[in-house]
Specification:
The complex is a heterodimer of chains A (445) and B (296). Chain A has two domains: 154 residues, D-Maltodextrin-Binding Protein, domain 2; 198 residues, Periplasmic binding protein-like II (D-Maltodextrin-Binding Protein, domain 2), CATH 3.40.190.10. In chain A, helix 3 runs antiparallel to helix 13 and helix 17 runs antiparallel to helix 18. Chain A is an alpha/beta fold and 445 residues long. Chain B has 296 residues and is an all-alpha fold. Chain B folds into two domains: 30 residues, no CATH class; 226 residues, Orthogonal Bundle (MetI-like fold). Helices cover 73% and strands 0% of the residues of chain B. The chains are: A alpha/beta (445), B mainly alpha (296). Chains A and B meet through helix 1, helix 2, helix 4 and helix 17 of A and helix 1, helix 2, helix 6, helix 12 and helix 13 of B.
């Protein structure tokens, strides 16, 4: 009996040993050799059915379904099957897991630029430059700003697709109740913004002036710090030439501004369910045009650029793009079909349909002229279209997600909860981030 | 040959067949991942697409050193200690008391038994939503407490965030532990209560002298499961305190493993953290086992 138990124990223990041996065997060649797999063995000429994922936002689903149906009608031998991206805590997590499992589709229309360095490191992305004319197609559609989306090796692992310039939404009804202008609200400078915020809260029209999510996820700084930093710094990214930039006068000014909003209870610190702007808890929100649909029938809104110290007016104030891009993934077999489909879905016609259905800005040069009739019919979106030409992106650097998490933790500790001076927190985060971006992608210095 | 077969397969070989599916299940879903995690923790490792081959050098204890040097990890272990100090005694005491009450002949007994179990089988996301409302600044808890409510409010208060989560988890999982105690209470002989009554023991005296010793094994099980629940804490800090806030005071080791291993693609660091967590839980069990052994 004891022997048979020992045998059973050996059967259970065997996989442990195999795991160790198997892991050792896999450490053979370098990533660089396999990353160039795109274009080899004729894969860029393969045609046939492909799968794609798009966002689970209702408007994008509607656009995606129609677009896929339209392609399939014209290309029955290269059928495209579209589906919503599987649910999880975040799209990035799903895509990362799918790359590891080799189960990702050919194209994903929900790729965050911040995750591209990680997906590249995993060997999960196909450089689009392997397709004839790809670079000129991308640059021709998006213009010079497409260069921002090139990786450090000079290749496009993502196709810039659509942006959601982050701006300040305000509730006209609540502003009117508080006796604040609804056509030219005083929100351009920090001092004006603070005065308006105080007036809104003290008049009792809203519990909070503004309520960006105070939670600690790495991406939350894209919706409080980063748009204002873009504006204050004149369009500077978080990291330039492998050095953190935000520990400067602009970064400190933005941090001090938000710290005042939090310390004076003009911005909420609690995690909440739902949309505080839609339910009237806050009189302002800092989001992009994708959110407009959630406010329809609930809030009569207006929109202005994010504030700066000196005052930001007009429609050329830099802000964060909140872009979502398209990427082709390594498991894709029929890559020529995928590339042709990618071009089809970013054609002037499909870009127009995307704008019409979702209100999000295709990253196409001169959208105000190309889609003039849309903006005539929807004047509220003109501001977003103008801003779309002045957006900045997250930096394409090593350890990108970790960089943003370090920044968020420092922001949370100092600006939101006031447990450290914002200046000291920014300096500490900048030092950590410098080390992260200067180390290689596996964390080695 | 026959003797060898019997030595390997035992007297009842069919037992191995019945046991094999579970043994395979354990080997594939627990032993293999655990072994792989231990292996990863001693190497430079990140997730890659199938067929992508990268160097994964042995790095000795480097990942463990990085974990131990990380102040966020130390804070997360401290947070879990706070959680366990509150959650485990509270879970044991409340579930035993409620189970004893529900074991007695009280009106609506079935209704109460079901009511206590409902939170356990309800989706955490829904339950967390309700508790967020209850513990918000304008929530019912603050209305009841009035000026006694903490400032800042519970879940954004550095001192109250983790205790609030511990209380929530105690409430949510209470139904399951009550069930364990209810089952254990059925095995306590009624005669012991009767003789204690004859000896003039009060309700508290009977509870202390008969019930508590009678369910000791269940208490051990409840304690072990509560410690495991605490060590695995993820959903609650992720949802209730916005990812471990305020200022990392409700971050748990598993939440950090998720951030570093899944979000940031550093599974080597996350695995080392996971292995240390397993060792920590085993140490707690070891201490408990020694105490139990000394008592018996």
């Amino acid at each position: 009996m004891k022997k048979s138990r020992a045998l059973l124990a050996a059967v259970i223990a065997l996989p442990l040993g195999l795991a160790a041996v198997g892991g050792g065997v896999s450490s053979a060649s370098s990533l660089a050799g396999t990353r160039g797999s795109n274009g080899t063995s004729g894969s860029t000429t393969a045609q046939g059915p492909i799968n794609i994922w798009y966002s689970n936002n209702a408007q994008e689903v509607a656009w995606g379904e129609k677009m896929v149906a339209s392609w399939n009608a014209a290309n029955p031998r290269q059928k495209v099957t579209g589906q919503q991206i599987p649910s999880a805590q975040s799209s990035e997590e799903v895509i990362g897991a799918a790359i590891t499992a080799g189960s990702e589709p050919c194209l994903i229309y929900n790729t965050s630029p911040a995750s591209v360095p990680t997906f590249e490191q995993q060997g999960g992305l196909v450089p689009l430059n392997g397709f004839p004319g790809a670079a000129s197609y991308i640059e021709g559609r998006t213009g010079p700003s497409a260069n921002v989306y090139k990786s450090p090796d000079g290749l496009f692992y993502q196709m810039p697709w659509k942006s959601n310039p982050v701006m300040i939404f305000y509730n006209k009804k609540e502003f009117a109740k508080a006796g604040i202008s609804t056509t030219k609200p005083p929100l351009g400078s920090y001092s004006q913004f603070l005065a308006t915020a105080k007036k809104l809260v003290s008049s009792g029209v809203a519990k909070y002036a503004i309520y960006p999510s105070p939670s600690s996820e790495f991406y939350q700084s894209w919706y409080d710090f980063y748009p204002l930093y873009a504006a204050e710094s004149g369009g500077q990214e978080l990291v330039v030439n492998k050095k953190a930039t935000f520990d400067d006068a602009a970064g400190k000014a933005v941090a001090a501004f938000w710290a005042q909003l939090y310390s004076q209870n003009l911005a909420g610190k609690e995690t909440v369910n739902g949309d505080t702007f839609a339910d009237g808890t806050s009189a302002m929100a800092i989001v992009g045009p994708w959110a407009v649909v959630t406010y329809q029938g609930k809030v009569d809104w207006g929109v202005v650029p994010v504030p700066t110290t000196k005052g930001s007016y007009g429609d050329q104030v830099p802000t964060f793009s909140d872009a979502k891009n398209m990427s082709m993934y390594a498991s894709c077999k029929n890559r020529l079909t995928a590339w042709n489909f990618l071009k089809f879905s970013t054609s002037p016609t499909e870009d127009g349909k995307l704008l019409d259905t979702t209100g999000q800005m295709p990253m196409r040069q001169g959208i105000q002229q190309v889609y003039a009739s849309y903006f005539k019919a929807n004047p509220a979106y003109k501001e977003f279209a103008a801003e779309a030409a002045h957006v900045i992106e997250v930096p394409n650097v090593n350890n990108s997600i970790q960089v943003w998490q370090v920044f968020r933790d420092a922001w949370s500790k100092s600006v939101i909860f006031g447990k450290q001076s914002p200046s000291a927190a920014l300096a500490g985060a900048a030092a950590q981030i410098d080390k992260l971006v200067q180390s290689n992608s596996s964390g080695e210095p | 040959m026959k003797r060898l077969g019997r030595a390997v397969l035992g007297h009842q070989p069919i037992g191995l067949i019945f046991g094999a599916p579970y043994a395979v299940f354990i080997a594939l879903l627990f032993a293999y991942p655990l072994g792989l995690a231990v292996w990863i923790s001693f190497h430079h490792y990140f997730f890659t697409a199938p067929g992508v081959s990268v160097p994964r050098p042995y790095v000795g204890l480097e990942n463990y050193r990085a974990v131990i040097d990380d102040p966020a990890v130390r804070q997360a272990f401290l947070n879990v200690a706070v959680f366990l100090v509150i959650n485990v005694p509270l879970t044991v005491a409340l579930s035993l008391l409620v189970a004893t009450a529900l074991n007695a002949a009280i009106p609506f007994r079935s209704f109460f038994r079901t009511s206590f179990y409902v939170p356990y089988v309800t989706a955490s996301v829904a339950m967390v939503g309700v508790w967020l409302f209850m513990f918000s600044s304008g929530g019912v808890v603050n209305h009841v407490l009035g000026p006694l409510a903490p400032v800042p409010v519970w879940l954004i208060n550095q001192n109250w965030a983790m205790p609030s989560i511990a209380i929530y988890v105690t409430w949510k999982s209470l139904g399951f532990f009550i069930l364990l105690y209810l089952a254990a209470l059925q095995t306590v002989p009624k005669e012991l209560y009767e003789s204690a009554m004859v000896d003039g023991a009060s309700w508290w005296g009977r509870f202390k002298a008969v019930t508590i010793p009678g369910v000791r094994q269940a208490t051990t099980l409840v304690t072990i499961l509560a410690v495991i629940t605490g060590a695995n804490l993820f959903t609650e800090p992720y949802l209730m305190t916005g990812g471990g806030g305020p200022n990392g005071k409700s971050t748990s080791p598993v939440l950090l493993m998720y951030q570093t291993g899944i979000e940031q693609n550093h599974p080597d660091f996350a695995s080392a953290l996971g292995v240390l967590l397993v060792i920590g839980v085993l140490l707690v069990f070891g201490v408990q086992w020694l105490l139990e052994r000394r008592r018996t």
